[in-house]
Amino acid sequence: MKKLLLPLAAMAMLSGCATATMPVSGLLYGNVKAPLTATAAPEQATRVGRASVRSILGIIASGDASIHTAARNGGIREIHYVDYESQNFFGVLSEFTVVVYGN
């Protein structure tokens, strides 16, 4: 019984509250892509820009996942549509990425 108690206590302490926005979530792992917004731009998007934020155990979080930063990172002046990607591993590590498409 004591051999089982230590791993269970370690799992409870390590399963933090690091989460990212997801339309659906998984208990142990999540890797989701979803739409955020779109415009009525008639031509095809030729550039892609990304911006991310990360969280560890829901205690430490850093980054800039703004649409402005993602567009700047991709050299985009005219935004066509924006998606996001979200990953979560057991509530310990979490990442949220904004993906901007445009010209």
Describe this entry's structure for a reader.
The protein has helices at 2-14, 67-73; strands spanning 29-38, 47-56, 60-63, 79-89, 93-102. The mean pLDDT is 84. A five-stranded antiparallel β-sheet has the order 1-4-5-2-3. By secondary structure, the chain is α+β, with helices and mostly antiparallel strands. The radius of gyration is 18 Å and the shape is elongated.
Number of strands: 5
Provide mean pLDDT, rounded: 84
Using the CA coordinates, give the radius of gyration: 18 Å
Widest sheet: strand ordering: 1-4-5-2-3
Shape: elongated
Instruction: Please summarize the sheet with the most strands.
Output: 5 strands, antiparallel
> How many helices?
2
Alpha-beta classification:
alpha+beta
Measured between the Cα atoms of the first and last residue, the distance is: 61 Å
Percent in strands: 35-45%
Helix amount: 10-25%
Instruction: Characterize the quaternary organization of these chains.
Output: single chain
Pattern of helices and strands: HEEEHEE
Q: Low-confidence segments, ≥5 residues, pLDDT <50?
A: none
Give a summary of the structure in a few sentences.
This protein is an alpha+beta fold. Helix content is 19%, strand content 44%.
